[in-house]
Amino acid sequence: MSTGTKDDNVLVCIEDGIGTVTLNRPDKLNAFAGAMRKEVTRAVREMADHDDVRVIVITGAGRAFCAGADIGYMKELLEGNDTEAFRALVEAGREVVTAIRNTSKPVIASVNGPAAGGGANLALSCDIRIASDKASIGQTFNRIGLHPDWGGTYFLPRLVGASKALELMFTGEMIGAAEGYRIGLFNRVVPHEQLGAETQKLARLLAAKPPVALALVKQAVYASGNHNLDTMLDIELDHQLRCFDSEDATEGLNAFLEKRQPLFSGK
Predict the structure, then answer these.
(1) Residue 98 belongs to domain spanning
(2) Nearest to 168 by CA among 187, 184, 191
């Protein structure tokens, strides 16, 4: 099933348990304009509630993942001293990344090209990032005198440490796929022409896993940054008991003993 927004700047496709959100302004390197932020939020939230979606993929059309904000529109806001409209843009970015983090389903960023500014942090907000060898990523905000948003000051230090995060944000440099992989921004880097196939391969792998267990794993891992070991052991016990009571655990154990592939229902 494929759909688009009113202006087709965001495309949505659901197939074989995989929901794909494609930023679709290739002539502008998929820079966010108009209602695109809200449309991405809406798409992610709808997929989060869609029983047929097990995994969500976010990618860009053309040669870029996302260039962040539309600079022309930002200039208009600055010239008009329209602080309220600028605040609304930043808040709309907050809604996108919180929707991604709040969904119980795995979210994969398929980074097909440059991911800059808000586009970089859109990728960082996802659970897993698989990148083309032509991809690049950068905290380019201070090139135009601005501060990181879209959760960059939260996501980046947790991935690379405070000192490296400050270096990347201070310099505003774009770094290539190989360096992004080396420092932990990308989970995988693949040849550009194989990105689509490798993304689908990973998404299908996750879609075949038990949804209850994956949802609880995502919840626990992100909670671990705010809790001590004893609390996490309590959370693990609670999650383990919830999995033990699920139909998926019964199916998984039976499939293992019967030497067949399990078919998890998410119940």
Answers:
(1) 2-207
(2) 184
